Amino acid sequence: KVMGNLADRNEEPQEGEEVSGILVTHNFSSKIVAPEDLSTYTPLRMGSISSKLHVPFSGPPIAFSVMIQDMFMGVTHEETPPSEGGEGSPIHKFGIHNNQINVTIGKTRGVAVVEWEASPANDVIADATVTLLMNAQSSPAAMRMSGAPCYHPRSQDPPESKKRKEDSGNEQISSTEGRLNLIRDTLRDQFENVEMVLDGNTATYEITTDCGLESGTVGEDGVLICTVNADFDDNNGNQAKITVECADKKLASHVHECLVHLAAAAAPIPT
Fold this sequence. Notes:
alpha+beta
């Protein structure tokens, strides 16, 4: 039988209607109750487990900030100035998964505190967070100056592209720009001639090739041109709209599918 808030309704239940609650069986008698009614109709009590982990951390908070925001969506970051007198370091507090997992850096010197309410999802995210803390303090040089991972020059990059990467140590690049560059590099791995025009969070790529997947699509001059447009909705590289225009519809479909999967794989994990 159904008891408590689940049974407090004006309409009769319909056949096939879903009932969500906790099934309790005692002395061969079964009842379904809502979680908030568990203590009223049974001797059971609801409880939760709060976990707190002190992780040795001596790295720069900016290194952890870059890594955690690249890994998960919706990360919040609050910075509190030092206590009265101006001594000590600022306190950085990060919230993950709707602030169900919190990381505090700077409150205790050399220690990062990870706190969360235990659950299957929160435990996995907290474990990944601890791994990122350890990685951030062991290899912070990649983003200490640039706020981005180290770049390894590609032999086919044009001179101006290499120069821009060499100068990136003095200029931060957004996650979106990094993903737009990743799309460019992926296209250049497949096609010899790829030109990129960057405009904020949008980039246009012109692919020039001499072969297609459908017969009759290559022009009389032996050239087939495909235009790719990638548009991200913010600087964090979370959501991308990708369109491909090409006379060879089959090639356009293959390129579009590849880039959509690439953008999804490179985006932070939604929590």
